[in-house]
Specification:
Pfam families: Dimer_Tnp_hAT (PF05699). Its main location: nucleus. One of its GO terms (cellular component) is nucleus. By secondary structure, the protein is an alpha/beta fold. 57% of the residues lie in helices and 8% in strands. The protein has helices spanning 15-24, 33-57, 106-119, 135-144, 154-166, 169-187, 189-201, 217-229, 231-239, 246-252, 256-279, 290-302, 311-327, 340-347, 362-375, 381-393, 398-403, 407-421, 431-438, 443-452, 460-472, 482-493, and strands at residues 61-69, 75-84, 90-99, 126-131, 149-152. Strands 3-2-1-4-5 form a five-stranded mixed beta sheet, with helices on both faces. A hairpin with a 5-residue loop joins strand 2 (75-84) and strand 3 (90-99). It is globular and about 100 Å long. The chain starts with 14 loop residues before the first helix and ends in a 6-residue tail after the last helix.
Length: 499
């Protein structure tokens, strides 16, 4: 209960709990805080053992990491692990959220990650690490192992691309005006109550206005969307002189052409908002989705011009499209190294035909996949041994022996061609379910898919740990030791493993 509900360690010593238990079970003896800590540590050890077993069974692991500063000004680093198990189920585990008392240099960050990987005995299994765009952490990954892929969080990269657009003077002025209106209704009880009354009279859902946050562009989108939905109710409140003075109403007024501009901005930003939500959904956030989704955004939304569309919005669309292409290397050509995202997209049955890539680049991507397959570096040593033994046990005819036919090579070629011939899966269906039913048919490509499709598109799972930590390290609990913070966050984040 303490771990799941993020309660204080001293909860069982509280007067309220004593009074409650005196009614439920008068003979109950409450546990002391030290006894609770001991039991939580035992529970933590049991969960650690379960996670270690799952990680040892995985052929490769994707990790996400991020840093956070608590309300007591203590710095923490968190690491999460992501795998696809033998049943083709995506699993995520929080490994640690421990204090980092050193400067956040690339060297110190790499040391922290190396220690964490060593503790969990997964150093040689790390395929990729997903981080935000900060230079210190992106520079830290090669220091751990040059062969580990350093993946930038897709949601954060989208945020940076949108931020370039939001710097436009026209948008800055509109955002300021929207914030003024929201601020007025947040700080005036009379205006807020009146707004609720107007919403009820107009048949609108009773909703509060939302204030934007500088660090999250989607809050600007949500603020504008909520304002447009409540436009009539807001106008009625501002027009009522018993509620709003004339000087205040003039100060907060949004003119008709500005409302039209806001509506255009909402329509313009909506596909980016939806895509960000898709990337941040833990069950569907494979890196294989990044390039196909962004290509759809550009071609079907940013490059499409609507009738009577504001010229400023058209310019903003072009700017955003250019930023997305640059940050995600969408204008890739076959002379460059094949990207990790392209490998994952090919192995995802929803995007395997590479419709989102230029036709002339298809062969380069497929050749890279063949090269990885032929290298056999995706197989574990015991799998290689088993595969070679099975191959040696295969019956070879005299003609095969004379002509020197390589059965393994033929099998791989045939498997690859059959996979290409498969109809592409509908994008709304589950790719892992598809692989689960066809793994026996395409075992070689399937092993590769299990590795690359486990790589997440964002580092959201690490950031969610800090939301949990923020509920644990509060103003009333700011003196919690880093050890106890790590213990409570670990238990809460992995609560699905509690028995």
């Amino acid at each position: 209960m303490i771990a799941v509900n993020q309660l204080p360690l001293s909860f069982c010593s509280s007067n309220g709990f004593h009074d409650f238990m005196s009614v439920v079970e008068p003979n109950y003896k409450p546990c002391k805080e030290e006894a609770i800590k001991t039991r939580l540590k035992i529970l933590s050890s049991n969960i650690e053992e379960l996670i270690k077993n799952d990680l040892q069974d995985a052929s490769s692991i994707c990790c996400t990491t991020d840093c956070w500063t608590s309300i007591s000004q203590e710095s923490y680093i968190t690491v999460t692990a992501h795998v696809i198990d033998s049943n083709w189920c995506a699993k995520s585990y929080t490994l640690t959220t421990h204090e980092m008392d050193k400067r956040h240099t690339a060297e110190n960050l790499s040391e922290q990650l190396i220690n964490t990987f060593g503790k969990w005995d997964i150093t040689n299994k790390i395929l990729a690490i997903v981080t935000d765009n900060a230079k210190n952490i992106t520079n830290a990954i090669p220091l751990i192992n040059p062969e580990i892929y350093s993946v930038k969080c897709a949601a954060h990269s989208l945020q940076l691309a949108v931020n370039c657009v939001l710097k436009n003077e026209n948008i800055v002025n509109i955002i300021k005006q929207c914030n003024k209106i929201v601020g007025h209704f947040k700080h005036s009880t009379l205006a807020k109550t009146s707004l609720e009354e107007k919403q009820e009279l107009l048949g609108l859902t009773k909703t509060t206005l939302l204030q934007s946050c500088k660090t999250r562009w989607n809050s600007i989108y949500l603020m504008m969307e909520r304002l447009v939905l409540n436009r009539c109710a807001i106008f009625n409140v501002l027009a009522d002189r018993t509620i709003t003075s004339q000087s205040m109403a003039q100060k907060l007024e949004i003119k008709e052409h500005e409302w039209l501009f806001i509506e255009s901005l909402i329509q313009f930003l909506k596909p980016i908002y939806v895509t960000t939500n898709i990337f941040c959904t833990e069950n569907n956030s494979s890196i294989s989705m990044i390039r196909p989704l962004l290509k759809q955004i550009i071609e079907k939304h940013l490059m499409q011009c609507h009738e009577n569309e504001d010229t400023i919005v058209q310019t903003l669309k072009q700017t955003l499209a250019s930023e997305i292409k640059r940050r995600f290397s969408l204008e890739w050509d076959s002379t460059e190294s094949v990207l990790l995202e392209q490998i994952a997209s090919f192995l995802d049955p929803r995007f395997k035909d590479l419709d989102h890539e230029v036709l002339s680049n298809h062969e380069a991507i497929r050749s890279k996949i063949k090269q990885i397959i032929n290298q056999n570096n995706y197989l574990e040593p015991n799998e290689i041994t088993t595969a070679s033994q099975e191959q040696q046990n295969k019956h070879r005819s005299d003609l095969e022996y004379i002509f020197g036919i390589n059965n393994e090579e033929n099998d791989l070629t045939k498997e690859f061609q059959n996979y290409l011939a498969e109809p592409q899966l509908r994008f709304t269906l589950d790719p892992l379910e598809w692989w689960k039913t066809r793994y026996s048919k395409y075992p070689t490509i399937g092993k590769l898919a299990k590795k690359y499709m486990a790589i997440t598109a964002t580092s959201v799972s690490a950031e969610r740990c800090f939301s949990t930590a923020g509920n644990i390290v509060t103003r009333k609990r700011a003196s919690l030791s880093p050890e106890n913070v790590n213990l409570l966050v670990f238990l809460h984040q992995n609560k699905q493993l509690m028995i």
